[in-house]
Design brief:
eight-stranded mixed β-sheet, about 425 residues, RNA-binding, elongated, 13 helices, BirA Bifunctional Protein, domain 2, alpha+beta, Helix Hairpins, 2 domains
RNA sequence: GGAGGGAUGGCCGAGAGGACGAAGGCGGUUGUCUUGAAAACAACUGUGGCAGUGAUGUCACCGGGGGUUCGAAUCCCUCUCCCUCCGCCA
């Protein structure tokens, strides 16, 4: 959610931002109109309320002084004012509901240096690391490799849970667990993150806080009977940890990391990426979430992105950093970098991390503030998050890039402390 | 799942239709006293909306929402959360 005061004073900048985002539907003009109406009604209602407050006090006094007839007359007048207030309140309620709904559907304007383009064609590769592996045989895709090695079972996954489900088995399941642990340990030990085990189902309002609702509900799974929504990423529950809080001076920055399953309906892309574990309904992901002071936002985004990149470098996986163009930016992000890893079997760059700065957009929705110093007014925090990293796609890259002619896979040395002597699969 | 009891400011806790943004205590800030500290005493001490350049004014907020009333922390309805006991369960 945006600051309505900023919106009032920066109509042109706002209009320009919506054009850049290629979001002509964004109801920012409606929001501003409704805001004007809202304030008008509010002032009328409050003036009447003031009159009624003083009148009611007076009635109390009159009764104590036993001036019943005078009190009766005043009572009647106050009754009429009350009816007027009720009418105004009803109008106000309607206007405010519409206003709030409009505000919740206006996306976050991009940072100045985000590449401007209408869609993902305009995304810019800003850096690339590592050498693409070369083979003297035709490298296999992970759906074949994983099946032959008996570490990914697609058939039984589909039989049990439907399409886009899978079983990881033996060395495959173990590899995912170990990667998750290693990711967490690096973030905790080297980057100052605190590990969190969050709820994986949350209330609807938590989804609104992070921006997943109201606009993107059809990407989410939910409990049919109660207001429980399955998280599509740990970002949701971890960002909402500090909902409705005013953080003490000195509390920031807060760095959290959590490894959770993520549940996504992937309804938008039926028929796309159906093979393998690239796009599935349930996957494990290590997610980093930061709460910081506004001035630190951009530096924090850089160190967040680096924390994810370092993992890929130590795994010796070639990757590139992509600056997401305005038209491809998510609803809540002001700037976003994707990290894409090379997978030699399916010959694709796979997104394994997405690192975003939200400025105070989520903080306003979830009402997360901090006190800059003792006694100062509370201000909204800046939030950031980034994957570090999404597990299935890292597994894809490890299997495909490190495969050998006989179909076996050699795992990177950095995992030796976790894998022990079992450095190979197959 | 069944039966009860609760939710009041940073914390504890009173208040049961009008003088209540809310007693009292704790905590915090500032001041007096003191060489300094402690103690004692005094004052101040919540969040947000709206109007105003501003001093300020005003409105709202006693778990959330709705209702009754001239007037609600207080009465009614409803939802959420917490606690106790019983049952069940990992």
């Amino acid at each position: 959610m945006l600051d309505i005061r900023w919106m009032r004073e920066n109509r042109e900048a706002l209009a320009e931002a919506m054009v850049k985002l290629n979001d002509p539907e964004a109801p920012w003009e409606q929001a501003l109109d409704l805001d004007g109406k809202r304030r008008e009604l509010l002032q009328q209602a409050e003036k009447l309320r003031e009159e009624r407050n003083t009148g009611s006090k007076r009635i109390g006094v009159l009764f104590r002084e036993k001036k019943a007839s005078e009190a009766g007359a005043l009572k009647e007048r106050m009754g009429r004012i009350g009816a007027e207030i009720a009418q105004l309140d009803e109008d106000l309620r309607r206007v405010e509901a519409a206003y709030h709904d409009a505000m919740m559907r206006i996306p976050n304007p991009p940072e100045k240096d985000v590449p401007v383009a209408p869609d993902e064609e305009g995304n810019v590769v800003v850096s690339q690391w590592g050498e693409l592996p070369e083979f003297d045989f035709v490298p296999q895709a992970h759906w074949d490799l994983g099946t032959d090695l008996d570490i990914i079972d697609f058939e039984r996954g589909v039989a049990t849970a439907g399409s886009r489900f899978y079983f990881l088995k033996g060395a495959g399941a173990r590899l995912q667990r170990i990667l998750s642990n290693w990711f967490l340990d690096v973030h905790i030990r080297e980057h100052g993150f605190t590990e969190i085990y969050p709820p994986m189902m949350v209330r609807g309002h938590a989804m609104e806080g992070t921006g997943n609702l109201p606009k993107f509900g059809d990407n989410l799974y939910r409990d049919a009977e109660e207001d429980y929504w399955f998280i599509p990423t740990a970002e949701v529950s971890v960002t909402n940890m500090h909902r409705d809080e005013i953080l003490d001076p000195g509390a920031l920055p807060l760095y959290y990391v959590a490894s959770t399953p993520c549940f996504r309906r992937e309804k938008v892309s039926a028929g796309k990426d159906v093979r393998g574990i690239k796009r599935v309904h349930q996957f494990q992901k290590v997610e980093m979430v930061k709460f910081v002071e506004p001035a630190a936002g951009r530096d924090e985004l850089e160190s967040l992105t680096r924390a994810a990149e370092v993992l890929l470098e130590r795994l010796d996986l070639p990757y590139r950093r992509v600056a997401i163009a305005t038209g491809d930016l998510s609803f809540v992000a002001a700037i976003k970098y994707d990290l894409e890893v090379w997978a030699a079997g399916c010959r694709e760059w796979l997104e394994v991390s997405s690192c975003s700065l939200f400025r105070d957009f989520q903080a306003r929705r979830a009402n997360i503030r901090y006190r800059p110093r003792e006694g100062a007014r509370p201000e909204f925090v800046y939030t950031l998050n980034g994957s570090g990293l999404a597990l299935p796609r890292v597994i894809i890259a490890l299997l495909e890039n490190n495969q050998r002619a006989d179909g076996s896979v050699k795992l990177p040395d950095v995992l030796r402390p976790y894998l022990g002597d079992e450095m190979e699969i197959g």
